[in-house]
Design goal:
alpha+beta, D-Maltodextrin-Binding Protein, domain 2, Dipeptide-binding Protein, domain 1, Dipeptide-binding Protein, domain 3, 3 domains, 8-stranded mixed sheet, 15 helices, SBP_5_dom
Amino acid sequence: MKRVLIAAAAALLLSGLPADAAPKQGGSIVITYKDDISTLDPAVGYDWQNWSIIKSIFDGLMDYEPGTTKLVPDLAESFDISPDGLTYSFKLRDGVKFHNGRAMTAADVKYSIERAVTPATQSPGAGYFSNIAGYDDVAGGKATTLSGITTPDDKTVVIKLTSPNAAFLHIVAMNFSYVVPKEEVEKYGADFGHHPVGTGAFKFVEWNPGQNLTLERFQDYNKKGVPYLDKITFEIGQEPTVNLLRLQKGEVDILGDGIPPAQFVQVTNDPANKDLVVPGEQLHTGYVALNVKVKPLDDVRVRQAINMAINKERIVQILNGRAKVANQVLPPAMPGYDPNYKGYPYDPAQAKKLLAEAGLADGFSTELYVMNTDPQPRIAQAIQQDLAAVGIKADIKAIAQAEVISAGGTEGQAPMVWSGGLAWIADFPDPSNFYSVILGCSGAIAGGWNWSWYCNPELDKRASAADAMTDPAKADERNKAWASIYADVMKDAPWVPIMNETRYTMHSPHVGGDPQLFVEPIHIPVNYDYIFSTDAQ
């Protein structure tokens, strides 16, 4: 807590606020989004828009130190790892309560992970738990409990793996393992995502679809002193340009969708906004997913041709330079990124040759799905023009975020998906995170996020071997192994990596806190637990 308070006080001094405007309990803020939230069920929610809201309502065994990628115990007070890396023992924190008043126990942790793995839940993150003993039986519908998770007492959770996993502590810090009360899940059933109950800093109050969503401070939160805010209101349904005007009038505190691209230069060049605009690098790759189950995209030559047909530099220009051109799956800041990898060049002539080799000299027609929030449709139009230049006619399907997610997760429905606004931002800072759910076989499932429906069993085996390298002394070897895996993914071309984007958030003078909390690499886009109202009395 001390580190956060010092950083927050420094931010206030820089912004010209009184030096004594340290965090105080109280106050409320308003956050805006154009599109509604899809769900607040931690086992199901998996997009940037609901990520930080889910994190505000729920907790997991592990978390990240605010504003950093450093892992620290959360619901766990401490943990031990066996010498062979196969057994994790977590000792739970005292005094943790659910929002319904019941004390959380080890049985709740076990239930929550098993629920994420159970096929009926349709969790897009189920595959993350694949090396917990008993996973195959639960995922295959042969069992309802994971044999690898035991609870010797109410304060102890023991998890046994079938193979070592260097990223396992990151996995139990993800929302898919956040702890939920069984009685509330059974009470609401499939609608639990609209009536969430967790142990987090804020409790759910109400959700009026398409209008607003309200959270309030949880008085019995197990971390004393936080959150600072009493109330958070998410207003939904207005265009980002309107929300910017409202922020400038003092009606809004945080732009959930970021600064509208059309106003970006004007806003960032205005000296009055100097301390209100917060940039932050992300572990992010924006890409076009090419559905390998849909003809003619099932032909690798066609997918390689599409990689060569798209002018990525032009797309970066549409974003006012708020990104760098990507040539591979991993972003530059991620371990395993290969700075020597060249990728596919922008070469329309070679793209035409590959299409001709595939028997498509006259081109073909397809569909490109895109989220309907600016600048995503404009980016899709640029991609459409590039594809047309090599004979590919792509009909743009600009629809709401939730509909894009649904289409991508339905086999055979979306031939191409531009991930903008939904692009992959790392769940945790490890190269494995860009594989299993979005490129591995375990993610190529109904409701999943492997929108290319790509599955290469041989690469899955190599990925498992890389994950088993838990010795820190072999970190370089492990990173090279992942670099090789991603190079071979690109040979199969299920993606067109487009860009690595920098996120810009804007907030009102009425919100204070460490600027890094507004652009956290993990709790995207904002860590609400530690920001505060400067108007609080």
